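Input (RNase H type-1 domain-containing protein):
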Amino acid sequence: MVIDVTNIFRCQKLVKIPVCQLIRCFHNEPIPVTWKKPGIGWTKLNFDGSCKSISGKASIGGVVRNHNADFLLGYAESIGQANSTIAELTALRRGMELALEYGWNKYLWVEGDAKTLVEIIVKRRQVRCTEVQRHISNINSILPEFENCIVSHIYREGNRAADKFAQMGHDSNHPRIWRVPPDEVLVQLLEDAQGITVLRRKG
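Output:
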C-alpha cells in the first residue's frame, strides 16, 4: 500500500489517537466503478492494450457499443514487440479507424483505462518520446473526422470487456473483427449492460 507522506504528517499532529483510528486514517475506501452507456445516438468505444512483461509481446483490443449497450463490434490483434504505452495508443487508433470505417463518425465516446495517455490526448500535450508522439499525432489527425468526440478515462474495473479483447489478441495470428460477440466476453458485456458495479481497491 502506498501512503501519502503528507497524510502521515497530518496524522502525527493528532494527539492521543487510538491505533485503530490511525489505521483508518491510512485506509483508502474502495471506489465503485460502473461502465456507463452512451447517450442516445452516441456510439461508445472502449479500448485497451496488453503487454507481457517477460516476452515483451503486445496486443490490442476494443469493443464498440450503442446507447442500449448493444454489441456493435469487437477487435483484437497481436502487434509484436511493444511497450504498454504503444499498445494503448495503437488500440485507440485502431478503434477510431474502425469507427470511421463503419460509419460511426457522428457521436463517438472513447474510453480507456490509461489515465495519463487520455490526459495527454485531451489536453493536446507534447511528449519527448518520438515514437509515442508519432502515435499521438496520428490520433489527433483522426479526431477531426468525428463530428463530436469525447475522450475519457475509466478505471480498469470498468474496462473489462476491452481488456478481454486485448488479452485475446495475444492468441491471434492475424487481426480479428467480430460483429457478433464471442463467448469469451459475454459475461463482461452482460454485466456492463446491467450496470453492475465493481469495487476498485486502492493501494
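The chain has two domains: 1-30, 43-193.
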